[in-house]
Amino acid sequence: MKYKILGKSGLRVSELCLGVMGFGKEWGWGADKEESKKVFDAYVEAGGNFIDTANYYTAGTSESYTGEFIAGNREQFVLATKYTLGMKRGDPNSGGNHRKNMVQSVEASLKRLGTEYIDLYWLHMWDFTTPVDEVMRGLDDLVRQGKILHIGVSDTPAWIVARANTLAELRGWSQFVAYQVEYSLIQRTAERDIIPLAREMDLTLTPWAPLAGGALTGKYLRNDPGRLKPESVRLNDRSQNIAREVVNIAEELHCSPAQVALRWTMQQQVNAELKRGVVIPIVGATKEHQVKDNLGAVNITLSDDQMKRLDDISTFELGFPHDFLRTDNVRDLVSAGLYNVIENHHR
């Protein structure tokens, strides 16, 4: 296991993050405490130190289990949890990005986790009602109080994150250092605006569902949709073709398809030329053998040809204005006919 620097911070985190949404069986699936501990131990034995949970996961059980598992060596772990989602149905202030929910959520998480501080505190989803300055000032207050050390943002439009970090930089508040989004060979739309923003603002990208809910392991190629609805995008022709290519490359490398799919995300440097920005996929598992297989992704490398094959089979349209701005005509116009001789290190 190698370690990466988390965004603009100096925090060292392992190159795979363990997502523990499935710790607990309150949602009708997941792992009991015994199996959760086996998953946790396998990850730690491999050198992992980056744990991702949320207050909402399995009604708080995920945080409680995680707190018990790290209690004997709390300082070793980079502990991340989230707030936003409503914990009490019918109470309008039990959910949202606002300061009241932020404060009551962090206090409840600290108790469930059995710790005095949280290393990385995520805003879970944007609510489109709370002012950006209220969010950023509130999070900065928690940093100054020592209850959280760093802040991250998840499932939020790029323009909001850009505004939030610019405001925080202007006012001397804590800035987001990581950006959590859905990203995989099947779901690449983060490449439109989110990944360019991460490149520009030096935010580490932490993809959730890097295996597309298991679709990239090839398990749905047998026409067994499992819990997925037949109309799911993870079962359409494009997704099935991507999964087949993942399986083909796995056979070439004598590894599992899951390892190939994870490795693809790991090799997606946010800015390869500047060597700035990294992608740290979140691996979730409810069984010990699953996490052990996923961890094998750190031991393989995809060749340039294999990366290109995966990129080509999963290609998608960026849409306006991205495709428009990439046309030869526009490039010629904005460069006064010199596009090919202007060396642009920002690209």
Structural class: alpha/beta
Total strand count, please? 10
Query: Spans with pLDDT under 50 lasting ≥5 residues?
Result: 270-275
Largest sheet: number of strands, sense, barrel closure: 8 strands, parallel
Which homologous superfamily in CATH is the superfamily of the largest domain?
NADP-dependent oxidoreductase domain
The CATH topology annotation of the largest domain reads as TIM Barrel
Report the order of strands and helices. Answer: EEEHEHEHEHEHEHEHHEHHHH
Cα shape = globular
Average of pLDDT = 94
User: What share of residues are in beta strands?
Assistant: 5-15%
Distance between the termini: 30 Å
**What is the CATH top level name of the largest domain?**
Alpha Beta
| Rg, nearest Å | 21 Å
Please give the order of strands in the largest beta sheet.
9-8-7-6-5-4-3-10
Per CATH, the architecture of the largest domain is Alpha-Beta Barrel
Number of helices: 12
Indicate the topology.
Layout: E1 3-5, E2 12-14, E3 17-19, H1 33-45, E4 50-52, H2 61-70, E5 78-83, H3 99-113, E6 118-123, H4 132-144, E7 148-154, H5 158-171, E8 176-182, H6 194-201, E9 204-208, H7 237-253, H8 257-266, E10 282-284, H9 288-295, H10 304-313, H11 322-325, H12 328-334
Parallel strand pairs: 3-4, 3-10, 4-5, 5-6, 6-7, 7-8, 8-9
Antiparallel strand pairs: 1-2
Helix pairs in contact: 1-9, 4-5, 7-8, 7-10
